[in-house]
Write a structure and sequence with these properties.
Elements (H helix, E strand, L loop, with lengths): L6 E4 L3 H12 L3 E5 L2 E6 L2 E6 L17 E5 L2 H11 L3 E7 L5 E6 L5 E6 L7
Parallel strand pairs: 1-4, 5-8
Antiparallel strand pairs: 2-3, 3-4, 6-7, 7-8
Helix pairs in contact: 1-2
Length: 123
């Protein structure tokens, strides 16, 4: 069986990234190295990666496309994201294929989407 592992989000301040995602997901974070924090998102690891904090000499740009998260309550997640001060693109919307979701960016410019796990379009 093929599994996705990990999904990497480039960040520029690892502690801020850890705090941001921990406050939204309310799940444990694992410090893997000085520049990596891992979140177990239902079997797929979300890896926040700060190359400079890891001792690397390079930086990474933000991801160009959203990373999508399935959440049990988009309303609850929406309120948690708003409390972080990150901009939320509009409100929770229903897409033509039936998914209910909203979009935002994390503090590092990575686009992210939170979709109601009950409405996921799986093909």
């Amino acid at each position: 069986m093929v599994r996705l592992y990990p999904v990497i989000l480039p960040v520029s301040y690892i502690e801020q990234a850890s705090s941001f995602y921990a406050s939204i997901f309310d799940i444990p974070v694992s410090r893997v190295s000085s520049g990596r924090h891992y979140f177990n998102c239902g079997g797929t690891i979300l890896a926040c990666f700060d190359p400079k904090a890891d001792g690397d000499s390079f930086t990474l740009p933000s991801n160009p496309d959203p990373v999508y998260f399935a959440v049990p309550s988009p309303e609850y997640t929406y309120e948690r994201v708003k409390k972080t001060g990150c901009p939320v693109d509009g409100s929770i919307e229903t897409q033509p294929w039936g998914e209910q979701c909203f979009y935002t960016k994390d503090p590092f410019g990575n686009p992210i989407c939170f979709a109601d796990q009950k409405t996921l379009f799986l093909g």
